[in-house]
Design brief:
The structure is a homotetramer. Chain A has 3 helices and 6 strands; from the N terminus they run ααββαββββ. Chain A is of the alpha+beta class and about 150 residues long. Chain A is globular and about 45 Å long. At the A-B interface, helix 2, helix 3 and strand 3 of A face helix 2, helix 3 and strand 3 of B.
Chain lengths: ~150, ~150, ~150, ~150
Amino acid sequence: MTAAAFVARDPAYASRIRASFARQGAMALIGAEIVDLAPGYCAIAVQPRPELAQQHGYVHAGIVATLVDSAGGYAGFTLFPADSSVLTVEFKLNLLAPADGDRLVAEGFVVKPGRTLVITRGEVRAEKVGKRTLVALMQQTLIVLHGKADA
Amino acid sequence: MTAAAFVARDPAYASRIRASFARQGAMALIGAEIVDLAPGYCAIAVQPRPELAQQHGYVHAGIVATLVDSAGGYAGFTLFPADSSVLTVEFKLNLLAPADGDRLVAEGFVVKPGRTLVITRGEVRAEKVGKRTLVALMQQTLIVLHGKADA
Amino acid sequence: MTAAAFVARDPAYASRIRASFARQGAMALIGAEIVDLAPGYCAIAVQPRPELAQQHGYVHAGIVATLVDSAGGYAGFTLFPADSSVLTVEFKLNLLAPADGDRLVAEGFVVKPGRTLVITRGEVRAEKVGKRTLVALMQQTLIVLHGKADA
Amino acid sequence: MTAAAFVARDPAYASRIRASFARQGAMALIGAEIVDLAPGYCAIAVQPRPELAQQHGYVHAGIVATLVDSAGGYAGFTLFPADSSVLTVEFKLNLLAPADGDRLVAEGFVVKPGRTLVITRGEVRAEKVGKRTLVALMQQTLIVLHGKADA
């Protein structure tokens, strides 16, 4: 899929998203941070550690889901008007490889920005001594709540 | 769907699952606990609190996913032989209502227990002053790793 | 999941749905027919035959999807107002067993009837000399198009 | 996602897939044909016509699913050994725009070729007087049946 060139309607989208992200207790709990933002795109990273692990020591599929659901949601949110907010309708996640390493990066990409529904896809990669491995693949549906500012 | 009556091959399945659950840093991090276990069934609960919230104060979709992915995984694991472990291949989650309240309970149900792949479905309910609301619906594929004990 | 008791807003929902079904060329092509309708519920059946088969002789996963996507869509449509129509936003389908036999029956059940989005789940069973086997499991999101009558 | 360069283990993969495709009654019924094949890739096309339509005249979501499920399945199958066959474990499909026009082309891409499970994604485009519109997005899990030749 060729990367679409999207234009943000709200020029202040980045500060609006960083403020929204800062209100998420879950992002602080898992130690996630936004590492990149562009119209239709968001990347969120976390450092794997025992508190995020499942029973074999890898990052839990649900934590991977938390990262990439947020990356997809904020990718969509970059394109929304200022007085709106975003909710996840649903997502589907395939786990492709054990999630561990030095850093886990989830990327969300807008595929189809509709007025009411926005479709995104997501990819999560594990970085380990310079090598990057695709560990998860997501497809997601978001809903735009018009007239309901996020804050 | 009528609830199938499943029989556990490993009579010690409950202690095996509780030990596996105790090795999950992510379950401790979010404060989750197993509240019910039966062959083909697992229920996991958490108390909503600001550390689990997304930007509007509800429990984050990813935390809901973490709960119900685990409930589905352990529902499947109840039916596995003792020397095996379980991995999530994929899941799909619909978010139906804001997740808040006094307690969030995720239930996993085995639908089809194959030798290699196990299909489950999951439901998450929010309990608020005695009222229960369905907040999420999941469909999940697990893979059985034979000959690889979980511990 | 306990079956919810739904009430249809349009008392003529059954004739509206049968007329809509009759406009579907794809339903005629595969030989599908509605075998049951109730508020929040629809069942559609087809007789397996070589024209519906994949390479091993079983009914093609896409034909199974066609049946259960329609059953879910019309299950939702039973609850819509008369001047609306329905579109599938997305669905996820697990194939559990080979689809063959004397008859294939897909059932759609409304789980959550929202004003804009309706969530359903679906089950497909194969009937073979009196025995019924669950062959597929679906989870689906529909969107209500208000003010756009189906015909 | 950068396109991975895959190598087919069976040099005769194309003729093996065309023979498998020819055994599918469902592909003949809907008038589908393979329009491209490469290691890890398959494209299948169909011409929209009333027999494939849902109630509004667009190609039925289930027919779109049939195309892209097959494209994903054969994309995976290009990489399998000669004495194996392929089954769809599950797929998830988002419908993005009405499917009509002169031609509908479904493409399947292998994302992760495992020994037992293969993950693909798919895209469906409608072509109308030279313009191409993305109408559906898929994510799919396949299982390799080793030692069971397709024919």
